[in-house]
Design a protein that fits this description.
GO molecular function, one term: ATP hydrolysis activity
Subcellular location: Cell membrane
Strand content: 5-15%
Protein name: ABC transporter ATP-binding protein/permease
Bound molecules: adenosine-5'-triphosphate
Number of strands: 10
InterPro entries: AAA+_ATPase, ABC1_TM_dom, ABC1_TM_sf, ABC_transporter-like_ATP-bd, ABC_transporter-like_CS, P-loop_NTPase, Type_1_exporter
Main location: membrane
Length: 620
C-alpha cells in the first residue's frame, strides 16, 4: 500500500531537483560556480576581520618562496665565484641571513594561516548552522513530509558543518595562484617557452581531475537517498523506542541485512569510480611529468651552452618545480572549489525555499479580547501534493468563552481543522475568519502567541522538567509561580513531586542522569505548556489519550476551570470528556454533520448518539 508520503509530488515548497547528470557535467560545473559568490558572502559574514587577516597573510606567504629562490640564486653564483678565484660579492652574508629570515618567517606565517583557517571554519560552521536552523524553522510543516526536502535538508546540514576543507581551499587557491604567477614571471624572464611547456603538461591532468571530481559529486548526490535509508536503519536499530519490538519480532538481523545490502551498493559504486579515477589520473599525471622534464632538459641544455649560470639553473629549476606544483595545485584546488560549489547548490537552494504560508508584512495584531471568534466559511482543504479533499465546504464557528469538542472517527479531518485554525496550512478554498477578518491578514507570530496547542504527537523534550514546561512560552520570562501554577493545573505537579531532582530533573534517557516518564506522565508535562501560555484559544488534540480515566476527568475539570471565559477546542475519542463541552461538533467525511450539546445530540439520536452508545456498551 503506498504511504501518504509516496503519493506526494510537491509539498509546500518548490523543490526542483536538478539531478547532476554525467553528460551535462561541464555545463553543470560552470553553472555551479555562480554559487561561489553567495558562499564567499557567507564566509565574509562569519568574520570579516578573520577573512582579512587570513588573505593578507596568505598573500605574504605566497611571495616568500620566490624571494627565497631569487636570493638563493645570488648565493650560489656568489659561491661559484670563489671557485673561479674571484672574491665573494659584497653583502654575501647579508644574503644568507636574509634567506634564513625568510625561511623562519615562512614557518611562522604558515602556522598563523592554519590558525586563521580553523578560526574561520569554526565561525563559518556556526554561522551557517544557525542560518540553516532559522530557515528550517521558517518553512512550512508541509516540507517535513516531503522526502525530497529531507534529502535537501540533510545535504544542507552536512554542507553547513563540513566546509573546513572548502575554506582552506579558497585560501590556498589565492596563495597558490600568487606563488604560481610570481614564479611564472621569473620563468618568462628567462624564456616564455619554459612556461608553455609546463602549461601543456599540466592542462590534461587538470581537466581529468575536474571531470572525476564532478563524477564523485554526481555519485554522492545519487547516493543520498540510500544514505538516508541507512541512517534510518541505524537509528531504528539503536533506538530505545524500537528496542522492545526488535527483540520480540527478532528484527535486528533483518535490519542489519538491509543495512549491509545498502552499504554494499554504495561501496561498489565508490570502488567502480575510484578505479576509473586511478587509471586516468595515472595517465594524465605521466603527461604532466613529461612537461616538467622537457622544461628541465631545455634549461640544462642552455646552461651547458653557457647562456645560464649555475645560479640561474638552480633558480629556474626551483621556479619550474614551484610554478608547476602551484599551477597544478591551483588547478586542482580550483576544481575542488568548483566541486564544493556544486555541493553548495543544495545549501543555497535550501536558503531560497519559500514557505507557502506567508506572514503578512505589517499584519494586524490579534484583538484582545477576541470579540466574535473564529469562523470557517465554506472551507475546503486538500493536502498539497495529494488529490483527496479532506475538508469539504466546512462551516464552523467558535465564539469567545465557548468550549467545543470536535469528534469523529479516525481520519475524518479533526486534526486538519486544528492545523488550519493555527495556520500551519491555509485553506485550499473558502476562508477562515477571526473577528470577521481573514486569518491571513493577521501577524502570524501574534496569532500563534494567542494559541496554546498540544497535539497528539506532542514533543518530549530531553531537557529538565522545568524547561519542558517553560518551552510553552519562551517569548517572555516567566516566574517560578507561573510554572508551578501551570503544573498544578495539568496535574504535572504530582509527576514532578515524585522526581528526585524536582523541576530541575533531566527528563528522557538521552543525557546523563535523565529519567524517563510514562506516556501519561509526559502528557501531563506537555499539558502544562499549554496552561503556561496566556493564550485566548486553547486547543487540545487528544492530549489525554494516555491518561487513565480518572486522571483524564480530573484534567478536564481543571481544564474547564482554566478555560473559563476563553475559547477552547478539544479533540477526544472519550465521551466522558466530550460531554463536558458546551457544544459538540461531529465531523464526517470532512463535513460538519451534527452539532449541539450532549443532551441535544443524544435526543437527536443521530451519529453522536450511536457513537456514544457504542462506547458506553463496551464499558458495560
Ligand atoms: N500531511 C498530510 N498529507 C496528506 N494527507 C494527510 C496529511 N495529514 C493527514 N492526512 C490525511 O487527512 C485525513 C484526515 O486526517 P486528520 O489527521 O485530520 O484526521 P483525524 O480526524 O484527526 O484522525 P484521528 O482521529 O485518527 O486523529 C486522513 O485521511 C489523513 O490520511
Amino acid at each position: 500500500m503506498p504511504s501518504k508520503i509516496d503519493e506526494k509530488k510537491d509539498c509546500g515548497t518548490s523543490v526542483d531537483e536538478a539531478q547532476p547528470r554525467e553528460g551535462g557535467a561541464w555545463a553543470e560545473r560552470i553553472r555551479a560556480l555562480k554559487n561561489v559568490p553567495p558562499v564567499l558572502h557567507f564566509v565574509w559574514e562569519s568574520g570579516p576581520s578573520v577573512v582579512f587577516w587570513n588573505i593578507t597573510i596568505r598573500i605574504v606567504v605566497a611571495f616568500l618562496p620566490v624571494g627565497i629562490g631569487i636570493i638563493g640564486r645570488f648565493i650560489i653564483d656568489g659561491v661559484n665565484r670563489l671557485r673561479m678565484q674571484q672574491p665573494l660579492p659584497a653583502h654575501f652574508w647579508w644574503l644568507v641571513g636574509s634567506e634564513m629570515a625568510l625561511a623562519v618567517l615562512t614557518g611562522i606565517l604558515t602556522r598563523s594561516v592554519d590558525y586563521f583557517d580553523n578560526l574561520l571554519a569554526d565561525r563559518y560552521t556556526h554561522h551557517v548552522s544557525v542560518e540553516v536552523m532559522r530557515k528550517a524553522a521558517a518553512l512550512d510543516v508541509t516540507v517535513y513530509e516531503d522526502p525530497v526536502f529531507y534529502d535537501r535538508l540533510e545535504r544542507a546540514r552536512v554542507q553547513a558543518t563540513d566546509r573546513l576543507a572548502m575554506i582552506q581551499q579558497m585560501g590556498r587557491l589565492i596563495q597558490q595562484s600568487v606563488t604560481a604567477i610570481a614564479f611564472s614571471i621569473v620563468l618568462i624572464k628567462y624564456s616564455p617557452f619554459l612556461l608553455l611547456l609546463l602549461v601543456a603538461g599540466i592542462l590534461p591532468a587538470f581537466l581529468g581531475e575536474s571531470h572525476f571530481a564532478f563524477l564523485t559529486y554526481a555519485k554522492n548526490f545519487r547516493q543520498t537517498p540510500l544514505r538516508r535509508q541507512m541512517d534510518y536503519l541505524r537509528q531504528v536499530g539503536g533506538s530505545k523506542e524500537a528496542a522492545k519490538e526488535l527483540k520480540l519480532f527478532n528484527l535486528s538481523e533483518y535490519l542489519t541485512n538491509r543495512f549491509s545490502a545498502l552499504s554494499q551498493t554504495i561501496y561498489e559504486q565508490n570502488v567502480a569510480l575510484n578505479r576509473r579515477r586511478l587509471f586516468w589520473g595515472g595517465i594524465l599525471a605521466i603527461i604532466g611529468q613529461l612537461g616538467y622534464y622537457a622544461a628541465y632538459g631545455y634549461s640544462i641544455w642552455r646552461t651547458i651552452q653557457g647562456r645560464y649560470s649555475i645560479g640561474d639553473l638552480t633558480l629556474i629549476t626551483t621556479a619550474i618545480m614551484q610554478a608547476m606544483g602551484n599551477i597544478q595545485q591551483a588547478f586542482s584546488t580550483a576544481s575542488g572549489v568548483a566541486d564544493q560549489a556544486l555541493f553548495l547548490t543544495d545549501l543555497l537552494a535550501f536558503f531560497e525555499m519559500k514557505p507557502r504560508v506567508q506572514n503578512k508584512e505589517g499584519g494586524f495584531k490579534v484583538p484582545r479580547p477576541i470579540r466574535h471568534g473564529f469562523e470557517f466559511r465554506n472551507v475546503s482543504f486538500t493536502y498539497p501534493g495529494t488529490e483527496r479533499r479532506i475538508l469539504k465546504n466546512f462551516n464552523f464557528f467558535l465564539e469567545p468563552g465557548e468550549r467545543i469538542a470536535l469528534i469523529g472517527e479516525n481520519g475524518q479531518g479533526k486534526t486538519t481543522v486544528v492545523k488550519l485554525i493555527t495556520r500551519l496550512y491555509d485553506p485550499s478554498e473558502g476562508q477562515i475568519l477571526l473577528d470577521g477578518v481573514d486569518l491571513r491578514e493577521y501577524d502570524l507570530d501574534d496569532l500563534h502567541a494567542e494559541m496554546g496547542v498540544i497535539f497528539q504527537d506532542f514533543m518530549r523534550y530531553e531537557m529538565t522538567a522545568r524547561e519542558n514546561i517553560a518551552v510553552g512560552r519562551v517569548e517572555v520570562p516567566h516566574t517560578e509561580e507561573e510554572i508551578r501554577y501551570a503544573a498544578e493545573k495539568s496535574l504535572a505537579a504530582s509527576v514532578v513531586g515524585k522526581l528526585h531532582g524536582g523541576y530541575e530533573q533531566m527528563l528522557g534517557r538521552r543525557f546523563e542522569g535523565g529519567v524517563d516518564l510514562s506516556g501519561g506522565e509526559w502528557q501531563r508535562i506537555a499539558l502544562a505548556r499549554a496552561y503556561l501560555r496566556d493564550a485566548q484559544l486553547l486547543i487540545l488534540d487528544e492530549p489525554t489519550a494516555a491518561l487513565d480515566a480518572r486522571s483524564e476527568l480530573e484534567v478536564f475539570e481543571r481544564f474547564a476551570e482554566l478555560t473559563e471565559g476563553k475559547m477552547a477546542l478539544l479533540i477526544s475519542h472519550r465521551f466522558s470528556t466530550v460531554r463536558m463541552a458546551d457544544r459538540i461538533v461531529v465531523l464526517e467525511g470532512g463535513r460538519l454533520v451534527e452539532e449541539g450539546n450532549h443532551s441535544q445530540l443524544m435526543a437527536l439520536g443521530g451519529r453522536y448518539a450511536a457513537m456514544f452508545e457504542m462506547q458506553a456498551a463496551s464499558y458495560r
